Structure formats: C-alpha cells, structure tokens
Amino acid sequence: MATLPARLDDSHKGSYGTVLIIAGCRSYPGAAILAALGAGRLGAGLVRLALPQGIVPEVLPAVPFATVLRCPETAAGGLAAEANEQILAAAADADAVVIGPGLGTEAPTGELVDAVLSSVTAPLVVDADALNLCATAGCPLLTERNGPTVITPHPGEFTRLAAAPMPVGDDERARAAAALAHELGAVVVLKGHHTVVSDGERLYRETAGNPGMATGGMGDVLAGAIGAVLARGNLNETQTPECDGTAAARRATASMAALAVHLHAVAGDLAADELAQDGLLPQDVAERLGRAARERQS
C-alpha cells in the first residue's frame, strides 16, 4: 500500500495537488460539501468545486477553503450542457478529478460524464450518480479511458455495472471486484463491510471501519479522500514513476486508492471511539482523516 509523502518545510499549496470535484445538484448539495471535506482533510493543496450556480450559496459557507466554478444549471437544478467546456478546462489543470457525488442523472449530466470520461487524462474517481449514468450507457467510455480510473460502487451500483447479482461473502466479493476491474480496465473500490480494492490482479481488503459508517454521505467523503491521495501521488515521483504501461498505472492507482480507503476507515474508528457508532456522521469522519494519516506518512 502507498504512503502519504511527508510535507516539506518549503512546500506550498501546489506541492499537494489540485482536486477538481464535479458534484451536487439542487436535491443533493450536501454531497459536494462532504466530498470537498474529504479532499481537504486529506491534504489536497487546492480543492475546486464545479457546482450548479444555484447551490453555491448553500455549499460555499460550509467549505470556504474551496474555490468554485459557478456553472450553468438545468431547470431541475443539475449541471447544464453549457457547463461542459468550462468544467473540462478546469479538469485539464487538475491533478485529479472526482465526478459523481450528488450529481443527479439528468440527460445533460450524462453528456457531461461522457465528456469527462472521454477527454480527462488525469486520475479520475467515478462515484455515485456518475456510475449510475455509466451503467445505463453500458460502460463503453470507462473501458476506453486514457488515464487512471477508480470507480467506487456500493453493492447496488456494482450490480448495475456488472449486470449481475451482488455476491455474498468476502471471497466472492473479492473475486467479483477483480473481475469487474479486469473487464473495465479500472480500479474497483467495492464498498461495504471489508471494502475491497482491486486492479484486476492485486487485491486489498480493508478490515478497519465499523457499522456506524453505514450512513448517507460517507461515500462522498471517501470519494474526495481518494481524489486527494491520487492528486498528491500524481505529483510525487516515488508513488507514480512514469508508469510503463496500463497495468503498472493501475497497480500504482490501486495502491493509492487502498490507502485512502484505509485512512477513511481508520478515521471512522477514531470517530466512533469518541462519539459512539450511533452518533457517527460523515463530517465526523472527514474531521479525523488527518489524524488517521499520521501513521501512514513517509
């Protein structure tokens, strides 16, 4: 598993990467907040949020450290097709991109997801509604992507992507995650009890974490956290040394994704120790990501 590079005395925000998070709609503004907290609390140098302009007043006060792209929105409050050019330009300047938390599944949003999958070459985390849109389209753009890709399905999303029932049991889940990773050419983070990370060859099974983390929004924090680790790794040659081929890139990406999963799980345990499982909220986990990270710093 990867480690977080130590923060040097002469570093600046550019030393820790820019994460672009494409998230949120009128119905789910909180998802963008939680993803931004996940990225910020794992040390991304700059967090940028691409948001429908109508939810900016709700989101920005909760994450004042983030910069915001105020994007055109549909009548229903999602990202409009007119936002695509603006978002793709921001993605070209990012060290990692996260797309999907609370995004909605309108047709213009599907066009945006297609555009991002087709043209973004930075490490990409595909989460939540972006996965549902991919499953509806049959996933062709996932398999054709030119860049490291992490997908983060929960069991229901996994079933839609794989077009097969969700297997029961740790070993069966691990085999299913590896098979989907191999099929799509992506790193699969199959969330749940003992979250599994696979690049199709290697496998990481997370044993930390607790049932208190089974609550809405926890995956949004994780998506942002994975984005932060990928952005930092993308700038650190000891983590991603000019990967010589797709398989090597996937191995490095899987290692970094597994690190983020581990830190998220450990932060969940720290939060549960203080607050009890029944009182656990996603933002409690985000607030403890830095403490969790101390043990994995190189």
How are the secondary structure elements laid out?
Layout: E1 18-22, H1 29-41, E2 46-52, H2 56-59, E3 67-71, H3 84-92, E4 96-99, H4 107-119, E5 124-126, H5 128-137, H6 140-143, E6 149-151, H7 155-162, H8 170-184, E7 187-190, E8 196-198, E9 203-205, H9 218-234, H10 246-275, H11 282-287, H12 289-293
Parallel strand pairs: 1-2, 1-4, 2-3, 4-5, 5-6, 6-7
Antiparallel strand pairs: 7-8, 8-9
Helix pairs in contact: 1-9, 5-7, 9-10
Structure summary:
This protein is α/β, with parallel strands linked by helices and 298 residues long.
Key attributes of the depicted protein:
UDP-N-acetylmuramoyl-L-alanine:D-glutamate ligase, 298 residues, alpha/beta, nine-stranded mixed beta sheet, globular
Structure description:
It is a single chain. With about 300 residues, the protein is α/β, with parallel strands linked by helices. The protein is about 45% helix and about 10% strand. It has a nine-stranded mixed beta sheet, with helices on both faces.
Task: Give the number of domains.
Answer: 1
Percent of residues in beta strands?
A: 5-15%
Largest sheet, spatial ordering of strands: 3-2-1-4-5-6-7-8-9
Principal-axis shape equals globular
CATH topology group: UDP-N-acetylmuramoyl-L-alanine:D-glutamate ligase
Assign the CATH class.
Answer: Alpha Beta
End-to-end gap: 12 Å
Structural class: alpha/beta
